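Write out this protein's structure.
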Amino acid sequence: MSRKSYIQNIICGILFCISTNYISAQNYAVSGYLIDAGTKETLIGATVYLSDKGTGVITDRYGYFQLAGIPKGEHLLRFSYVGYETLEIKIEIKDKGIALPDIEMKPQPINIEEITIVASPINKAADRQIETSMIELTPKMVQSIPTARNDVLSAIKFLPGIDRTEPFSPLFTVRGGDPGENAVLLDGVMIYNPYHSSMSSGIFNTQTIKSVDILVGGFGAEFGGRNSSVMYISTKDGNRSGLHGEIEPSTFHSKAFLEFPLGNKGSAVIAGRYFFDIVPYFIMHTKSYFYDYNFSYTCRLNPRHRLTGKYFQSHDRNVIDMNTFYQYIDNTIGWNMY
């Protein structure tokens, strides 16, 4: 090869690389958040589909999506989510990516037809792929279970593969494992003791919960070596359309929940529960109570960025007067202690 041909090949290679980078640089990204039109809460796991390209993504735990690799021109985006109306939006990309404003989706009842379940042939059973086993639980499902007492940890015991350790205990086992092998995360933070000391309920207020995802198999090792299950609880960001809430006063069990807009771009959630065990108080004059409360603030800085701060605290107190306790034992069983 002559020196002239060698130089020409190098120049052609450089021009090819430059043209390739230029062509790839013409692809842009579209991003945004999907929210409920009524409550303004973000939608987790919604589908965003680019019709003309045949590609799509799903929203993350914060309702955010980013669809990359879109060339210039007009495109049709389709948004779909179970229980909501399908929405289509036309976009036009010119010389930069697009950050869409919050996309509101309206709830829609689902009318299903007859469902036929057909078993796979035995010879094809080995061809099945191993998939992550995930169970989704919503606050409405928790409230619809009478014996769950509106408690998440009590409601999950009615799901397949999950069993309770004792009738009145929130401890649960998954597929024969140990209760200590279950990881519980609240907005991504590991909760090592998600039960109140009375062992009658969990520390999570159902009114503040947006969704509960339970992984019972196929999850990674980033959850501290838990072998049975991973429960991921996501809490609400607050309603930006107005003040909404619920207050339930009672003699021994009171709770309150408020969500409201805070400023032009923010929303907040304040919730709390208080329980006083009145039966031991009248019998042995003991003071046993617990409380937990949540605070959440979300500020939408721009269509792409949000600032979120969440605070949670749970407290238990059990005070037993031993003199009163011995007196109760003496009066009940009929023995004397000296």
